[in-house]
Amino acid sequence: MSAADCLFCRIVAGEIPAKVVHESENVLAFRDINPQAPTHVLVIPREHYPHAAALAAARPEVTAELVAAAGTIAEQEGISEAGYRLLFNTGEQAGQTVFHAHLHVLGGEWLGGLVGGELR
What we know:
With 120 residues, this protein is α+β, with helices and mostly antiparallel strands. The protein contains three helices and seven strands, in the order αβββααββββ. A five-stranded antiparallel sheet has the order 1-2-3-5-4, with helices on one face. The protein has a two-stranded antiparallel sheet with strand order 6-7. α2 crosses α3.
């Protein structure tokens, strides 16, 4: 996939508008247009990598910057104390629909999961 075909590359280039909540030299974060929680932000590298594993192999420091940005965003959004979820979908069977590495920051409500070894 070329940058011309990639939705997120076009957002980085400013060709498609997005509600940006954080940006740096290597990272851009914006609100998901189809949120799955009250807070749903996508954190992406400005460079194109098809998925998180490719990004981590090529640019581990940018992968770390994505996670650090997610923590900053959680603080800004007021969800850091209650808790939030970070999620990379890698590949079609995992639900990845845009093949540009991206980290989901989800929070603002109970997201379910294991509590004391029990699924709740």
